[in-house]
Specification:
By secondary structure, the chain is of the alpha+beta class. The chain has two domains: about 5-145, Trna Endonuclease, Chain: A, domain 1 (3-Layer(aba) Sandwich), CATH 3.40.1350; about 165-230, no CATH class. It contains five helices and eleven strands; from the N terminus they run αβββααβββαβββββα. The longest helix is centred in the middle third of the chain and has 25 residues, at about 130-150. The protein is elongated and about 70 Å long.
Length: about 230
């Protein structure tokens, strides 16, 4: 499981790439070379210079020492024009780096310093066109995942989902294309669009529907008790 520090450093790597005149950048870019899948923590493309830079994040020495991709024939430095390792300050020394890699150090205030510049790889094993496509795909997937997560985030953490027969969903009306939230029961087949100018029926088995959370009888009993306690005398 990815640590919060590793996730944070990946995000900072993305910001750093963007600040370096990068036109396209993304985290978690999947690359393939000779049937091997390599995942770049951060990859940036500069269209004007026609170059690609990969940043691999390391947050512990054990992670650095056991990574057999770094110096492999299909390693990050072999795939793009430039490759870096990004680590917390003092984790590794420049002398420990595999040939060709640069070293970026990030401190507790997220200030990034170049400890060693990378050596340009004059013959990357992946074409710039391939790297652009893969980076674009990763960036698109990240945006869509973020939007879907925002749309379907369950603020109750599913504590009322067990045995639930009422559900809060997001659904898109096929007529007006408005996407809104609806309360429905488990076997409900349609719901009336909330848009005032539409009021059309949304077929729940055909429409684009995402469940946000669910409510069982425990939720109903607790809500009823709270409402009764709050009722004026």
């Amino acid at each position: 499981m990815e640590s919060s520090l590793h996730e944070h450093l990946k995000r900072q790597a993305l910001y750093w790439l963007k600040a370096k005149m990068t036109d396209l950048c993304a985290n978690e870019v999947q690359l393939y070379i000779r049937r091997k899948k390599i995942i770049a923590d951060a990859l940036g493309i500069n269209m004007t210079r026609k170059e690609a830079r990969i940043i691999e994040v390391k947050v512990s020495r054990s992670d650095f020492l056991r990574d057999d991709v770094l110096a492999a024939p299909h390693g990050y430095h072999q795939l793009a024009d430039y490759a870096y390792l990004m680590t917390p300050v003092g984790l590794i020394s420049p002398e420990e780096l595999p040939k060709g890699y640069g070293l970026l150090e990030i401190d507790e205030y997220d200030t990034i310093r170049v400890k060693r510049n990378p050596v340009r790889n004059r013959k990357p094993r992946l074409t710039l066109d391939t790297l652009i496509k893969r980076t674009g795909r990763a960036a698109t997937n990240a945006v869509l995942f973020k939007e879907l997560t925002k749309e379907t985030k369950d603020l109750t953490d599913g504590i009322y989902s067990r045995g639930a027969d009422v559900h809060l969903i997001n659904a898109t009306c096929p007529a007006c294309k408005k996407r809104r939230k609806y309360l429905v029961h488990t076997d409900q087949e349609t719901v009336v669009c909330k848009t005032r100018a539409c009021k059309g029926l949304i077929p729940l088995k055909k429409a684009r529907v995402h469940s946000v959370t669910s409510y069982n009888k425990t939720f109903y009993r607790q809500l009823k008790a709270l409402m009764e306690d709050a009722a004026p005398y």
